[in-house]
Amino acid sequence: MDDSTTSDAARSRSYIVIPARLASTRLPRKLLLRETGKALIQHTYEAALRATRPLGVCVAADHEEIAAEVRRFGGKVVMTDPQATCGTDRVAEVARSMPDMDIFVNVQGDEPEISGAAIDLAVELLDRDDRAVMSTLATPIRGRSQLDDPSCVKVVCNQFGEAMYFSRSPIPRAREWDDTLLCREPPCFLQHLGLYAYRREFLLEIAQLPPSPLEQLEKLEQLRVLSAGKTILVSVIDEPTIGIDTWDDYRAFVSRATIC
Fold first, then answer.
1. I want to staple 135 with a disulfide (CB 3.0 to 4.6 A). Which of 7, 101, 233, 246 is the partner?
2. Which H or E run contains 130?
3. 116-160 per-position pLDDT tens digit
4. Do residues 198 and 136 lie in contact, with contact meaning Cβ atoms separated by under 8 Å?
5. What is this structure's pTM?
């Protein structure tokens, strides 16, 4: 479908779900950190509200402390199964109760600087292509330390903009390294951004599949989708969002938020 001729009436009905887990390995209880004066989950919620295509936002919480914080700042929250194994399963749990929505966007709770435009683009990818069932975003990697960092998830795509693999390892792996590889256009290396849009029926199907061996090995739930033989559309943007995984990440975010 040509996006330039897509009317508002033809757009899919979409909704944002922010899966929120109280426990976290590298940065305990990070979604409740509030050195900026607001909890991290509130920053992410307010960022998600800037998207114009989705019809609403909610937090899919696994613990009453998260739920209470969301209610405190006036957000919408849905309690989900504490035993859910990943964010996708929490989003699917919300989707089961909302049959009138066509697309669900999974925005990770530790992405306080995600742009509304990025969320809208993920939805737009599915509105453009009726054959696609899932979409996500990536951004160029321009630093060697970022490329080598296992917390920076990399993705490689084919010529049609479809994901071939996601990994914590540097992919593709250059046989002979040259620093100019980091400057090439189109970019050689892409960082996957923690944002997904799913068609509802596909989301419910994926939630019923067991975690794949690759997913369990890399601890990347999107590998469940590729292992099942499904297609993930990827669009490359030049404005990366910055997830909060460590204390250094959080302190850097606090500094940026304070300056703003």
1. 233
2. none
3. 999 999 999 999 988 888 999 999 999 999 999 998 999 999 999
4. no
5. 0.88
